[in-house]
Each structure stands twice: as structure tokens, then as C-alpha cells.
Amino acid sequence: MKPALVIVGAGPRGTGLIERIAANAAELYGGSDLDIHLVDPHPPGGGRIWRDAQSPLLWMNSHAEDVTMFTDDTVDMAGPVREGPTLHQWAGLAGSTFADRRLQGAYLRWVHDDAVAALPPGVTVHHHPTRALRVGGPREGRQQVWLEGRPRPLPADLVVLALGHLDAEHEPQQAELTAYARTHGLVHLPPDFTADSDLSALKAGEPVLVRGFGLAFVDLMVLLTEGRGGRYAQDAYLPSGQEPVLYVGSRRGVPYHSKIGYDLTGERPPLPRFLGPAETEALLARPGGFDFRQDVWPLVEKELGYAHYHRLFTAHPERTALDWADFEERYAHAGPGERAALVAAAVPDPADRLDLAALDRPLTGEHHATPEEFQQALRDRVEAGLRRRHDPRHSPDLAVFLGLLSVYGQLVRLGDVGAWWHGFFSSLASGPPGPRLRQMLALSRAGVLKFVGADMTVTAEDGVFRASSPTVPGHTVEARALVEARLPEPTVRRARDALLRDLHADGAAETPDGLLRVDRADSRILDGAGRPHPRRFALGPFTDGRTPGAFTRPRTGGPAFRQNDATARAALTFLRALAPHANAA
């Protein structure tokens, strides 16, 4: 009987795993027979998020030149580098293009087909366009993967879950809001994938409260404006008359920072410097574990500050008051308070200093007398941010971006560090294209989009939803519709995915934040005692090994690539022992 590997999820992560299997097979598996079963109701490559059946108005939030599915020599992995084109090289686009998601799906389909073609003879890939319902089988024996609409399970020697982003049951507060809306004839759209949401209940001209100011909001904004026939003419928005009026707020009260619109020239910051493998291993070796805020965040702050000031001193020395070598030596040995004094003395202009607290909570202490005053103030802030993100004189911002990528690569090794870090990272490093923020400004000037403020609260009372923010004290907005513009939290307990819930019930461990626990070495699923399952693996955002994305910016280390490679090599090594030639030997 041929060995069999079942991969549940045929999107970017499943595709990346097949690419790594193809790259490592010659060394670890040879020409032996192997069946690889891909289980996903969506076509291989793009999966659900990058499928064809979505609006062409929806873009990627990365430049085409910053998207690759192929490894390079910056990836810390045991397997061979297998080079391939970035999205912009494959599609013949300008590198600075923000491609639409359907084009990215086509690229992913090509990567999938290319990886399958690179597999050795005898390794066959089968796609099952359905859902996996559960996984059974003994720890030391063959597994069974039950599929929707199929009476008999797929036999599997190994199972890899590459499920991607998951739907989730509503958390209690969301369930209460949905029930309130149903009782009072209101509209409540809980956290969801915006491209999958039914927005028809949001009526033209009516106010809609929107909680969330990240990428899910950007999709919502596009679908309810251009998606309803509006258009842009230079810096103005020309409404179709079919748009609702969006009142948006969030914890920060501001949109994510736009993508940086220039390239780095000159020396890159030499990272990691203060948070690298040695520091990560030391944190993991602590007998009592570690606390993110107390033990990890100070290292993150120091690392990001180092990236920022390295760039400032080496690329813009006229804005500094010390020699870089002197500053670097003193910075390396300074504690937090000493560093603040050092920076104040060495960097005369406060605008050139890195203030992570202000970046995280930019509206802290800011209050406006009227909503109109706040609209103009936030438009001014967004416009200033756009100018800065497209001005190479502020290139320390790009160095911080590279620092964030370096830090993320280390934090992945630590496991679940809490949701705050991922939100902070996304707001600085994973924001929308600059043109989207320009559209946001045009919508604001046209009165289609209105800003509520920071720490937005929503109440359900008197038959309506009400929103307020301390940014505009005393001001309240009423609406009969509320949209939660964010993805569902990827918790194991609330996942609608029956397979994942069944694994949890069967003993798979979760973190305090509800993520599936996996082994840091090769992503095997852990049980409550910390034992890795010999035949079950998991990769993706529902695990405590979650990374910034399944594909990444070239030459930035790509922690997802490192994980894919480790899992592929572990799987091939295990399966080789089961192959007929191995048994015969």
C-alpha cells in the first residue's frame, strides 16, 4: 500500500507545503510512490481568500514586487532554495502595482501547478473539492480523514492541517448584539470575511456604525462605494446615491498606516541585533516561562529603536548630534530611561525620534469640541501620514518596517504572545495601499465616511445602536445598522470548522488565547501534556506558530517558509520509512 499524506487546505499554505515537498523530495524521498490528497472545497492555489469568485475591486495590500511564494537564501531552513518569480515578475506588472486578489489567485494556481510538476515520478496529487469533517485514528497508526459527502474516510499516514483563516461562532457579546438586532428590526453584521458578507441590508443614505479601522474596513469601504457605482475623479469622490453613510471608529481611532511608497537605498539595518535566536532561546529556557510585556516587549522596543536610529544616523547624519559609532555603543548598554536621555541629546528634532507608544495610540489625550472639527483633524493626520510614508527623508520608517519583520520572525519561535502584538504589527507593517487612504479622504470630504474616534464604544438601547468616543466628548451617533469590520478570532473552541473542534475534544492543546498549540520544531500538534502527535501537523493563523502571512516579501527570512520546510522534511522522513522500498530493505 502506497504511503498517503492528506493536506487539509489547498490555499497558499497548502501550496507552500507542496512546494517544499517538491524541493526536498530528491534528498529525502527519492522516486518512491506517494499519494498526496488535497482537501478543500475551493480550487488549489488560491483557496478561499484568493478565489476568482470575488469583486475585482478588491486589492492585495502589498506591492506586487513584495509578494513571493519562493524561498531564497535568507530563509533559515534545512532544505534547498528553489527559486521562482515574485508576483510582479510572473505577471509582468510594475513592481509598485497593487494587484487585485483574483490576479494573486492566478499566481497561486500557477505556483501550485509548478510545484506539482516538480514532484518526483510516483508522487501523485489528488484534489478532493469538499470539506474535511474529522480526523480519527490511533497515535501510532494510520489516520482516517472523513470528508463531507463521502461514506468512507481517506486513509492517511500523516495529516497536515493548512486551514487558513477560519469562520467562528460568535463570542457572547456578538451573539447578544445579533439577538438585539433581530428583536428590534436592526442590522448587525458580526466579524466575518468582508468579501463573503451579504451587505445588501445596508441601505442607501442610512447611517451605519462600523467598528474596526483595519483591512476588513477597507474592503467594506470599497464594496459599499465603488461597488455600488460610485467613482473617483482625481481627488474627489462622485457618489452614485446608493451608498450608506459609514461612521467608523476603533481602539486607535485611526486607519492603519499605508504601505511605504519608496525603496530602501544604502545600508540595511544589521538585524537581528537585540532580539535574535540567542535571546529567543533564553526566553524559552526560563523555568517559569516569560511575560510578553515585562520580558519580551523591552527587547522588541530596543530592536525597533536600533533599526530606526541606524537608518537615521547612516542615511540622514545631518539630523543627528553624535557620531553613529558613539551612539551605537551607548545605545547598546543603556536601559530604557538612559536610552530616552541619549536619544534626546543625539536627535535634536522630536519628529526624528521613534515613539512606539504614540504610534500605538495616536489619539491619546486628543479631544475635539465638535465632530466637524475632528473630521478635519483626522483628515489632516491621514494626509500627513501619507506624505511621510512616501517621502524618503523619513526612511527610518522603512527601517522600522524591516525591524518589525525581523522581530516577528523571532516571536514566531516563542509561540502565542497574545493578540496585542499582532494588532500593533498589522497597524504599522500590514496596512492598506496609499491609494486606499486617498480614497478614504475623498469619501470623508464627500460626507460618505465619517470618523467617530478612539476607544469607540457601542451600546444597544432604545431600539437602536449608539456609538461614542472620548475623542469627541458628549457626541453620540445613532444607527440602525452595525458592522464589525474585523476577522473572527481564530480560537479553537469557537471555530465553526468541525474538524478542528473535534481535534480539540480529542485532546489537542490550546493556548490561553485559544490557538492550537504546535511543536516549534516541525509544527506537530501538541496535546495537553506537551507531547507532539506523531502523525498530525498544523500550519497557519489558527496555531500558536502563526506568521505574518503564507507568502512574504523577498529576502526577509520568511518564517512561514521556514515552517513549511521543516514540516515537509519531517513528513518526508516519516513517510520514507513506510515506502515499499524502505520496507523491502
Describe this entry's structure for a reader:
The chain has three domains: 219 residues, FAD/NAD(P)-binding domain, CATH 3.50.50; 138 residues, FAD/NAD(P)-binding domain (3-Layer(bba) Sandwich); 121 residues, no CATH class. Helices cover 36% and strands 15% of the residues. It is built from 17 helices and 19 strands. A six-stranded mixed beta sheet has the order 3-2-1-7-19-18, with helices on one face. Strands 8-17-9-12-13 form a five-stranded parallel beta sheet. The model has no long low-confidence stretch (mean pLDDT 94).
Keywords:
585 residues, alpha/beta, FAD/NAD(P)-binding domain, 3 domains, six-stranded mixed β-sheet, five-stranded parallel β-sheet, 19 strands, 36% helix, globular
Helix content: 25-40%
Oligomer: single chain
Top-tier CATH class of the largest domain: Alpha Beta
Say what the CATH topology of the largest domain is: FAD/NAD(P)-binding domain
Per DSSP, the total helix count is 17
Q: What's the pLDDT, averaged over the residues?
A: 94
